[in-house]
Please model this.
Amino acid sequence: MQILKSKINTNGKQFKENYAEMLQLVEQLNVHFEESRFQGKEKHIERARKKNKLLARERLEYVLDPDSPFLELLPLAGMKKKGGFGTGGTNVSGIGLVSGKLCMINSNVGTRKGGSVDYSTTFKALRIGEITLENKLPTINLVESGGANLPDQDKIFNYGGETFRQITQRSKLGLTTISIVFGNATAGGAYVPGMSDFSIFQKNAAKVFLAGPPLVKMATNEIATDEELGGAEMHSKISGVSDYLAQDELDGIRIAREIMQFVHTQKPHYIPTEKIEEPIYDNEEILGLVPANIKTPFDVRELIMRISDGSKFSEFKTNYGNTLVTGWTKIHGYPVGILANNGVIFSESANKGAQFIQLSNKNNIPLIFIHNTTGYMVGKKYEEGGIIKNGAKLINAVSNSEVPHITLMVGSSYGAGNYGMNGRSYHPRFLFAYPNSKIGVMGSEQLAGVMEIIQKAAAKKMGIPFDKENAEMIKQMMMMEAEEKSSAWHSTSELWDDGIIDPRETRNYLGFSLAIAYNQKIKGTDTYGVWRM
Model:
């Protein structure tokens, strides 16, 4: 493969200015990450410590293998939701190695709102379930939850039931779920250990019941204690809901790790054996070459050469449809195809992308889509040239491709360009975003401008004067709102991505995602829907 040569002047004014702007965004990202690590008020943490309880992230560290990577997912979910439980919700979720096997791990933050589940945490759990199933991973649940947040019940009740369905569907497929219960698992939360393949209850701590003493008293007039209704010893000796009785938290984690040693899991389909070549360019330079201002163009090859093994890239159709860069490379030793925007998508770019997807499917190679586009080209010339049918061809190829897809948003991702580049609605295995990225039907200025044209036409049709001053005020307000709602912070809060990442960590995120994808056999397709020639 050809070694790409950089044309970036790292001592130039533009590089340095952009580096400083991107660094500010990364610092803002780190502030939000810190918010997501909040594990409850100090008084709740002190209470847990007095009971010799570990915190959610400490439990997670103990269950992981020493030095295991951990791909935390959706850490900023609900960040901007009013009335929610805050950034990240009440669950820490991600993928790491347990007893040498890739596992999805979910750890309830019991010291934050009692681990109760709000709106954002519910949808975070549903997305985690999708990722777990698609990547055929076993699951370890570190349980301490008060169940559904009752004020949110009208918003989450119907959706919450899907998480239990997911557990049983995975079990049917042989994807093991292990639950360790360290405290309360009440109401709907009781079904998490109840539906798991293996349940471990901590002695004198686990409390698992559909209804606690107050509700039982109201419903049946029966008086019973927590321990009588749902204690670990009762469930281990009488009800049979518990399979293992752990003496303390560390014993419960030990048992889970022991179970993972013998349960059947997906054997890695491919593990690189050759020496991994690092890129010849410094990943630190990504902050200076990817513009913080998405209106500033850049050559996406400069990014590719800083994430690819040895900065090598076998480019496909270099001189055709050059606003879409396509080619094959390796990342951490894993073969992968890349489709990356270099601007607006023309018919030639769309056709090239569709062919490249076909070829990658023929050769069973997963795909990475790198977004930086304002969408498909518009105008009379391009409509006559068939931009609709050619754009549809790319979307058809993306929709019916069966190799794993990973999506990375590094700039703008507007309109049907988002669809053609495998946006959220096209179900990529993983979708990550840079903090400068934006997503929407169109840019804020274009959106406000279109609305102004519509308002002028409406005034003319009604025979009334057009109020320029009022229209300008509305335009500015609309631009501000559109800018906010297209931002990476809004997108990640709404769970439109699986996490915003520090651009310098791109290679590691993509490499680990590919390791997860290659954990099972990759088989492409040669079957697509009808597309116009």
